[in-house]
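Example 9 (inverse folding). The structure is encoded as follows.
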């Protein structure tokens, strides 16, 4: 079995017990190696804590997946490169990287409030209106989810981050990328189909058909 864990809630004794009971894979969220950004998102762990857990997992032969996110509020392109170097440096202790480029914004979250307070949200934005964000295609997000774009880290720089991760083979395999692209394309076609049906329904009601 596998599970998601936090670096501050496990120790060697617990991980050993988990291994003995059949745990072969753990998922752990690190998000970034930058302490300031970790504090800002209230992560509550340090890079050193995560690395210590990963080292213990390696000793116990437990495979690991680590989550990293790029595009945090206030993050710079240089800091993204620092995170990429951190991943490369510690690659031997991590079996798989789950990387998200671009912070997705969801209603009711602190990120949404910051997005609005900093004036980064479009003036006419409403959660009640579905819209396509064409620039999201640069970071392989074809859906209708708004993404945090900042002056110092806009869509093209986030695309550069994604390109570097792909070029250095730090984000996923070609097979995974093809499957993700296919599933996203299918999802987009379904969305267009639903929008078309909804439009026909609205027109029919207006015309009284």
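The amino acid assigned to each position is listed next.
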């Amino acid at each position: 079995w596998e599970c998601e864990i936090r670096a501050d809630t496990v120790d060697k004794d617990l991980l050993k017990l988990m291994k003995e009971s059949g745990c072969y894979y753990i998922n752990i969220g690190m998000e970034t190696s930058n302490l300031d950004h970790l504090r800002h998102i209230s992560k509550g762990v340090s890079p050193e804590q995560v690395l210590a857990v990963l080292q213990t997992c390696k000793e116990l032969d437990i495979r690991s997946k680590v989550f990293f996110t790029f595009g945090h509020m206030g993050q710079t392109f240089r800091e993204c490169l620092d995170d990429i170097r951190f991943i490369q440096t510690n690659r031997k202790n991590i079996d798989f990287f789950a990387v998200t480029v671009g912070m997705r914004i969801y209603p009711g979250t602190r990120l949404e409030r910051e997005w609005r307070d900093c004036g980064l949200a479009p003036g006419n934005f409403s959660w009640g209106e579905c819209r396509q964000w064409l620039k999201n295609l640069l970071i392989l997000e074809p859906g209708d989810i708004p993404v945090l774009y900042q002056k110092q880290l806009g869509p093209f720089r986030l695309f550069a981050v994604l390109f570097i991760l792909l070029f250095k083979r730090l984000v996923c395999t070609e097979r995974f990328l093809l499957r993700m692209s296919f599933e996203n394309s299918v999802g987009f076609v379904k969305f267009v189909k639903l929008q078309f049906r909804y439009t026909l329904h609205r027109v029919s009601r207006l015309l009284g058909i």
